[in-house]
Specification:
This protein is an alpha/beta fold and about 190 residues long. Helix content is about 30%, strand content about 25%. It has a 5-stranded parallel β-sheet, sandwiched between helices. It has a 3-stranded antiparallel β-sheet with strand order 2-1-4, covered by helices on one side. The chain is globular and about 45 Å long. Bound molecules: adenosine-5'-triphosphate (ATP). Adenosine-5'-triphosphate (ATP) binds next to helix 1.
Length: about 190
């Protein structure tokens, strides 16, 4: 299982954002993508997700991916548990209810499970989006600014979740401008 970039370049709006980005992540590996606003961190995550084609180079990944972006994929009119169940039913992984229960617990969202997603606060919504990634069972996590809007306790929970994911052989590619404790993560500075 791996996620690899080979000499990847990215062009958006006719402008070269970055070039010659190469890395290879295997089971248990993590990488942190850093750089100033507008440098292309989100674009790199979108390329990894297959939502944006590289201008040059190649991306290979032989495992299922879960993507976290600013835009939450959770249906705002459903309760949190129903919104998570909707996606979990489509995952290529067993035991959706168990996965959801573990994710809700890991993000301290148990008491909010029956609240409509639209009523969640900014930080709660972000935790819900992280819970969706955790519940997906996907080996490769692509996280774009996952700590945005989180309080310090929730940041610590996120760090624990990433560590546990890696400990079970998962891969994490994380774009962040906030400091996150991700031990031995590769640094991809754009
Ligand atoms: N759909 C698009 N069409 C054209 N240009 C775009 C598009 N999306 C993003 N860009 C441009 O690409 C550049 C990189 O954007 P990106 O969101 O990848 O940066 P970032 O490093 O994640 O920024 P931030 O730290 O502000 O989140 C920006 O200049 C942005 O305006």
């Amino acid at each position: 299982m791996s996620l690899a970039f080979r000499d990847v370049a990215c062009v958006r709006g006719g402008r070269l954002l970055f070039s010659s980005v190469s890395f290879d992540l295997g089971p248990g590996d993590a990488a942190i993508v850093t750089g100033p606003n507008g440098v292309g961190k989100s674009s790199l995550i979108r390329i990894a997700a297959g939502l944006l084609a590289p201008f040059e180079g190649a991306v290979t990944c032989d495992a299922n991916k879960a993507l976290l972006t600013e835009a939450s994929a959770l249906d705002s009119d459903r309760t949190l548990i129903a919104a998570l169940r909707f996606w979990a039913a489509l995952d290529n992984a067993p035991a959706p209810d168990t996965r959801i229960a573990q994710a809700l617990s890991a993000l301290n969202l148990d008491t909010l499970a029956d609240i409509p997603v639209r009523l969640l606060s900014t930080g709660q919504r972000r935790r819900a989006a992280i819970a969706r990634v955790a519940a997906s069972g996907a080996p490769v996590w692509l996280l774009d600014e996952p700590a945005n809007g989180l309080d310090t306790v929730s940041v610590a929970r996120l760090e624990t979740l990433i560590a546990e994911h890696r400990a079970t052989g998962g891969i994490a590619l994380v774009a962040t401008h906030l400091s996150l404790a991700i031990p031995a993560a590769r640094k991809i500075a754009l």
